[in-house]
Specification:
The protein is of the alpha/beta class. About 25% of the residues lie in helices and about 25% in strands. The structure holds NADP nicotinamide-adenine-dinucleotide phosphate. Keywords: Lyase, Oxidoreductase.
Length: about 300
């Protein structure tokens, strides 16, 4: 008899009430596939945009019934025929789109690129790097910010924002980060100059001029405030409110390896911090998403399996 697993599942789109826990046959690795025993999944807004039926806004389409989540870290426990480069027991992290919140997930290798978790990095922290870390990395790199320039990170207290602040600061960039006042000490610790995003953001930024680039990980108002302060739209990106002011997004292709190795190496060296604010069991996945959907979690939430 096939082994069984627990899985978070939706039969139809909805809010957290649509999330179901079910027992089902564990998937088996076929040719060209590996199976990962998932130990940690990190939550992202894209997860609930997908299970809520808003996938069009993230440029992809999904149809229930289906699983949930994206970012995983765990250990390979099956290797299918023809797979090279991975063996049973390898610790890995990567994307398992709509099949993360389950005990086992099967991934096509190399179509879905998995990175190895280096010694010194635990599964929860590795999982957090997958979407938020890569988006921050790709965004900061695509902006081409250099030492001495000033970057606005709007939504700097969030999962993407905290990584973006740190990656820019380590390049010698002066970073202005927007957050609610209760998160300003956090932003200072990360190396940013905090600004409250409420009120006239453009006027506040004018006091901190000149500004050279903007990474908007919130509602798009960071892009508008930056361009009002003379920042070229070509030096603005927005990931939370795509297209605002004509700004480009960050096309992080989750089926490529990207900078996962680099991000993990920085994390091991203590040069990239992940602030994990909540650790939930699979039973409490709906509660975890309910918290994530408030939009005011200044860090990452994890489901541990
Ligand atoms: N490739 C992509 O296109 C891509 C990839 C990843 C994420 N995203 C999108 O980027 C957005 C951010 O993702 P995330 O993972 O960082 O989300 P998150 O962790 O849930 O962000 C939460 C943070 O957003 C801040 N925030 C909420 N409203 C804000 C506002 N009006 N202005 C400034 N900050 C605000 C809050 O700061 P305070 O608590 O301080 O108020 C909170 O700390 C989401 O829409 C997500 O879907 C896109």
């Amino acid at each position: 008899m096939a082994d069984m697993m627990r899985q978070i599942w939706i039969d139809e789109f909805g809010g957290t009430e649509a999330l179901r826990m079910r027992e089902t046959a564990a998937p088996q690795a076929g040719p060209g596939q590996v199976r990962v025993r998932v130990r940690a999944a990190s939550l992202n807004p894209v997860d609930w945009k997908i299970f809520g039926g808003g996938a069009a806004s993230v440029g992809t389409s999904f149809a229930p019934p289906m699983g949930v989540g994206n970012d995983i870290a765990g250990t390979i426990d099956q290797v299918g025929a023809g797979v090279t480069g991975f063996t049973v027991g390898d610790r890995v992290f990567g994307s398992a789109r709509v099949k993360a919140l389950q005990d086992f997930t099967v991934l096509d290798v190399p179509a879905v690129k998995l990175a190895r978790i280096p010694d010194g990095l635990d599964d929860p922290e590795a999982a957090c790097l997958v979407v938020a870390g890569r988006t921050a990395w790709d965004g900061v790199e695509s902006l081409g910010v250099t030492a001495g320039e000033t970057l606005l990170v709007h939504g700097a207290a969030g999962g993407v924002g905290q990584y973006a602040v740190q990656l820019a600061v380590r390049k010698g960039v002066r970073v202005i980060g927007t957050a609610s006042p209760h998160n300003h000490d956090l932003l200072r610790e990360l190396g940013a100059e905090p600004v409250d995003y409420r009120g006239d953001l453009a006027a506040k930024l004018a006091q901190l001029a000149p500004l050279h680039a903007a990474f908007d990980a919130a509602d798009g108002s960071g892009v508008l405030a930056a361009t009002a302060n003379g920042v070229d739209i070509e030096r603005c990106i927005t990931v939370g409110a795509k297209g605002t002011g004509g700004a480009r997004g960050v096309a992080t292709d989750l089926e490529t390896h990207g900078a996962l190795d680099e991000l993990a190496a920085l994390a091991v060296r203590g040069e990239l911090r992940t602030r994990i604010l909540g650790r939930y069991s699979l039973n409490d996945a709906a509660e975890a998403y309910h918290e994530q959907m408030t939009g005011s979690v200044a860090g990452k939430l994890i489901v541990q399996l």
